[in-house]
Amino acid sequence: MPERINKFIAARSQWSRRQADELIARGLVTVNGTPVTPGATVTDADTVTVNGMTISAPAALLYLMLNKPIGYITTTDRRMSDNVLDLVPSTQRLFPVGRLDVLSSGLLLLTNDGELTNRLTHPRFEHEKEYVVEVDKTLTEDKLDVLRHGIRLRDKLTLPAKVRRLTDRGFSIAIREGKNRQIRRMCEYVGYNVINLRRTRVLSLSLGNLTVGRWRYLSAEEITHLRRDTGLL
């Protein structure tokens, strides 16, 4: 049955429909060897390529949660050592949803669902992620208030955050954006150096007691909640 080209690509790759439209506009998508235009329809009998890569038949959608260890890189480049993809099954092509820097640990979602990936990572959706942070000095309430109300990073104010003290040097913070090294930079702004940074939650999905370096499949209920929370249901 014919379907729109952007939907066809999103169902079979890491790209969302919006990203597929951008690739089409850049002339990077062909159908049976001919550049395609937005809005075109295709079937499984057609050969669709994106930037020279053939888009195969739709794979079953997979959703994994990994408790990323410190020292592993969040990348899809299999040539790089200490890659988070080395820690999960390699029978299906999976993509990390967002990033955790090499010195951070915790919840990392991996999937082949391009639409969900886009909803969770595009800044305009402002989906909440929570972290537990340990710093090198005793926390003060005035500095925690600065983190709560937002600070200026590269001339742009961060969105308000939910901050809760856990110990003398530890706190949790929930943010709705994902600027590069944002929490580390926010802490540096108020005079703290981060000793440990661990992501514990993405929307309703919590890390729980999953062991560091281990992974598990999401339950059907967790997938439903994620897709509902991101507006896909």
TrEMBL record:
PROSITE patterns: PSI_RSU, S4
InterPro entries attached to this UniProt entry: PsdUridine_s_RsuA/RluB/E/F_cat, PsdUridine_synth_cat_dom_sf, PsdUridine_synth_RsuA/RluA, PsdUridine_synth_RsuA/RluB/E/F, PsdUridine_synth_RsuA/RluB_CS, RsuA_PseudoU_synthase, S4_RNA-bd, S4_RNA-bd_sf
UniProt-listed Pfam families: PseudoU_synth_2, S4
GO annotation terms (biological process): enzyme-directed rRNA pseudouridine synthesis
Domain of life: Bacteria
Residues of the signal peptide: none
Molecular functions (GO terms): RNA binding; rRNA pseudouridine synthase activity
SUPFAM superfamilies reported for this sequence: Alpha-L RNA-binding motif, Pseudouridine synthase
Record keywords: Isomerase, RNA-binding
Domain RNA-binding S4: 3-64
Keyword Amino-acid biosynthesis among UniProt keywords: no
Cited Gene3D superfamilies: Alpha-L RNA-binding motif, Pseudouridine synthase I, catalytic domain, N-terminal subdomain, RNA-binding S4 domain
E.C. number(s) listed in UniProt: 5.4.99.-
Family (UniProt): Belongs to the pseudouridine synthase RsuA family.
Protein name: Pseudouridine synthase
Organism per entry: Candidatus Uhrbacteria bacterium CG10_big_fil_rev_8_21_14_0_10_48_11
Taxonomic classification: Bacteria, Candidatus Uhriibacteriota
